Amino acid sequence: NAIKNHSNSKKRFVKYSPLSPFFGQNNTLKPHQNNIGINTILLSFSGKPPRKIGVTSPNPEEGKTTTAINTAIALSQTGARVLLIDSDLRKPRVHRIFKTENGLGLSNFLSGQTDLESIIHGTEIPNLFFIPSGPIPPNPSELIGSSLFKEMMQTLEARFDHIIVDSPPVLGFADTAVLSTHVDGMILVSLSGKTPRETLQRARDLLYQVNAKILGVVINRVNIRRSDYGYYYYRYHYYYGKEEKKKELPYASSSEEDSAST
Fold first, then answer.
1. Which of 23, 197, 203, 256 could form a disulfide with 170 if both were Cys (CB 3.0 to 4.6 A apart)?
2. d(CA 66, CA 61)
3. Confidence class for position 172, pLDDT limits 50, 70, 90
4. What is the C-alpha separation between 104 and 177, in angstroms, rounded?
5. What 3-state class would DSSP assign to 36?
């Protein structure tokens, strides 16, 4: 799936685009420029849909955190109880997006410094909770690979409908390969025009070596004016733009209605 390149940082998150084609009839999720096709992911397993999903990329700065956050928000907007975990213990970012301190989090729990309940935070988005990474530890791979991490995931699975894990980049560190054994599947994020095909294949192969299930690949920051996706996106913008205006008119004042009609 491809994600449109947004110049406005707020538009990177589903929360700020409620009237988008990400949602279909009866709030069925559909792919669009803000995120991936969650419905496709949920149906990618035979039997039951994946509940624990890791999000990673071959290298840093390719959009994995944005994708993880959008995935979590989109799932929470279906009414599901969702937990987002920042497991990137080397370069955490999730706490910045939610504007919280990172003094207490996953690394503290995994090193035995605090209990699980103390690191789970609520957000202003209904049904969405998150666990920050905590202070950067000297042994990230060891903590992620610990039996305590496995036990934590099992405990959290009983409390939440979906768990989205923002994982470290695949290449260069063992963290994500280890983490992938604790989730139902991984989403691999690449940067349009920047991530070489060979690099993406190397990341894929490393995950396959530990028998990880790759749910899909997200192509991030696609320039729709230079791609085949342009017609698809602009048609949806046109349609939903009209819908938004129609919904606003009944609540406008008479002067606003006159202005809108002209």
1. 203
2. 10
3. confident
4. 25
5. coil
Instruction: Quote the tokens at residue 204.
Output: 């894929």
Query: DSSP assignment of 49-91, as one string?
Result: --SEEEEE-SSSSSSHHHHHHHHHHHHHTTT--EEEEE--SSS
**Domain topology for 2-223:** Rossmann fold (3.40.50)
Q: Amino acid letter at 149? A: F
Query: To 5 degrees, how large is the angle CA 107–CA 111–CA 115?
Result: 80
Mapped onto helix, strand or coil, the DSSP state of residue 172 is coil
Continuous segment of H or E residues that includes residue 179: helix 175-179
CA distance 239 to 224: 17
Q: Measuring CA to CA, which residue among 176, 213, 185 is closest to residue 62?
A: 176
Q: What pLDDT score was predicted for residue 45?
A: 63
Q: Read off the pLDDT of residues 113-123 as tens digits, 9 standing for 90 and up.
A: 999 999 999 99
The CA distance from 209 to 178, in Å, is 11
* Kind and range of the H or E run holding 231: helix 230-248
Reduced to 3 states, what is the DSSP secondary structure of residue 156?
A: helix
DSSP of 141-205:
HHHHTSHHHHHHHHHHHTT-SEEEEEPPPSTT-SHHHHHGGGSSEEEEEEETTTS-HHHHHHHHH
Taking the model in full, what pTM does it have? 0.75
Q: Where exactly are the structural domains of the chain?
A: 2-223, 228-262
Query: Tell me: the pLDDT tens digits for 58-85?
Result: 999 998 999 999 999 989 988 999 999 9
> CA quadruple 220, 120, 213, 168: dihedral positive or negative?
positive
Tracing tokens 């405990």 back to the chain, one arrives at 155
Q: Give the 3-state secondary structure percentages of the chain, helix then strand then coil, rounded to 5.
A: 40, 15, 40
